[in-house]
């Protein structure tokens, strides 16, 4: 018997670490990885709430999040590959074509 | 037993996430994320979401992370270096993330009486099997969104091929 709030706090911890990594990291692939971490943390809250309401709706929502995350990973990594071809760097500080 | 599972795999997930944050090399971050995802799969299972636990292992730690590791290897990404921008991000990122965590955990702890307790394996309101219930819902009530996701995947494949193609 674990309180649901423990699961929610665990998800909050993972989400906050994801935000921190998203802001701190300078490598575009690592930034993308931290987005995946945040998606996973939100999925945990969905599953916990689905358990709380004894309904399966939250789990189906997580299923759709997984599908969209897989599609997003494929397109995002393709964009990263084409950026690397054009700029020869993965550092987000140097990818600043729209900055000036 | 569920408390033991929660403590072991919750701590494992947090340690994996912290390792993701502190490692400099992208491949170490990617492999730490695999640890987080596998521990989350166990937590899903303990909350009665067997289908999602399997899908988490197959889709996330299987397919998506292989794609990540493949791209890291392909681009030969080295460890990131500290720049001026990263120091500014440190001073803004850590307090911001801590503030969001404090806000979320304050709300969750304040309302913890409403949320109640978990029971291992979970129990749906109509005493149905988890996977049977999901498939029932997915192929009757949510058939159109389910089919639309297949179109989404198709578009994503085409987009990935077009974007990653070498220009002549």
Tag the structure with descriptive keywords.
heterodimer, A: 100 residues, mainly alpha, Helix Hairpins, 3 helices, 0% strand, B: 168 residues, Four Helix Bundle (Hemerythrin (Met), subunit A), globular
CATH superfamily of the largest domain in chain B: NADH-ubiquinone/plastoquinone oxidoreductase chain 6, subunit NuoJ
**Looking at the structure, what is the overall shape of chain B?**
globular
CATH class of chain A: Mainly Alpha
Q: Tell me the series of helices and strands of chain B, N- to C-terminal.
A: HHHHHHH
| Beta strand % of chain A | under 5%
Number of domains of chain A: 1
Number of domains of chain B: 2
Q: Into which percent range does the helicity of residues of chain B fall?
A: over 70%
Q: Mean of the pLDDT scores of chain A?
A: 91
CATH-derived architecture of chain A:
Orthogonal Bundle
What is the straight-line distance between the termini of chain A?
Answer: 56 Å
CATH class category label of the largest domain in chain B: Mainly Alpha
Low-confidence stretches of chain B: none
Count the E strands of chain A: 0
According to DSSP, the number of beta strands of chain B is: 0
- Main sheet summary of chain B: none
Mean pLDDT of chain B: 88
Give the SSE string of chain A: HHH
Would you mind describing this structure in some detail?
The complex is a heterodimer of chains A (100) and B (168). Chain A is mainly α. Chain A has one domain: Helix Hairpins (Orthogonal Bundle), CATH 1.10.287.3510. Chain A is 78% helix and 0% strand. In chain A, helix 1 packs antiparallel against helix 2 and helix 2 packs antiparallel against helix 3. Chain B has 168 residues and is mainly α. Chain B has two domains: 122 residues, Four Helix Bundle (Hemerythrin (Met), subunit A), CATH 1.20.120.1200; 42 residues, no CATH class. In chain B, 78% of the residues lie in helices and 0% in strands. Chain B is built from seven helices and no strands. In chain B, helix 2 packs antiparallel against helix 3. Chain B is globular and about 55 Å long. Chains A and B meet through helix 1, helix 2 and helix 3 of A and helix 1, helix 2, helix 3, helix 4 and helix 6 of B.
């Amino acid at each position: 018997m674990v309180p649901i709030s423990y699961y929610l706090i665990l998800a909050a911890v993972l989400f906050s670490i994801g935000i921190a990594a998203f802001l701190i990291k300078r490598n575009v692939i690592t930034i993308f990885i931290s987005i995946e971490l945040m998606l996973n943390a939100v999925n945990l809250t969905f599953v916990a709430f689905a358990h709380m309401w004894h309904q399966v709706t939250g789990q189906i929502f997580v299923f759709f999040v997984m599908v969209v995350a897989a599609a997003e990973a494929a397109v995002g990594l393709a964009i990263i590959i084409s950026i690397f071809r054009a700029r020869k760097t993965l550092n987000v500080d140097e990818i600043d074509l729209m900055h000036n | 037993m569920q408390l033991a599972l929660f403590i072991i795999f919750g701590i494992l997930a947090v340690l994996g996430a912290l390792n993701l944050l502190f490692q400099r090399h992208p491949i170490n971050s990617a492999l730490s994320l695999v640890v987080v995802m596998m521990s989350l799969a166990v937590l899903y299972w303990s909350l009665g979401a067997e289908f999602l636990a399997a899908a988490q292992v197959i889709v996330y730690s299987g397919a998506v992370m292989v794609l990540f590791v493949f791209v890291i290897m392909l681009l030969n990404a080295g460890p990131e270096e500290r720049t001026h921008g990263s120091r500014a991000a440190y001073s803004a990122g850590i307090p911001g993330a801590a503030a969001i965590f404090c806000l979320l955990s304050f709300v969750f702890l304040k309302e913890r009486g409403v949320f109640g307790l978990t029971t291992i394996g979970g129990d749906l309101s109509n005493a149905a099997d988890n996977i049977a219930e999901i498939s029932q819902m997915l192929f009757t009530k949510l058939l159109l969104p389910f089919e639309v996701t297949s179109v989404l995947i198709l578009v994503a494949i085409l987009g990935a091929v077009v974007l990653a193609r070498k220009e002549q």
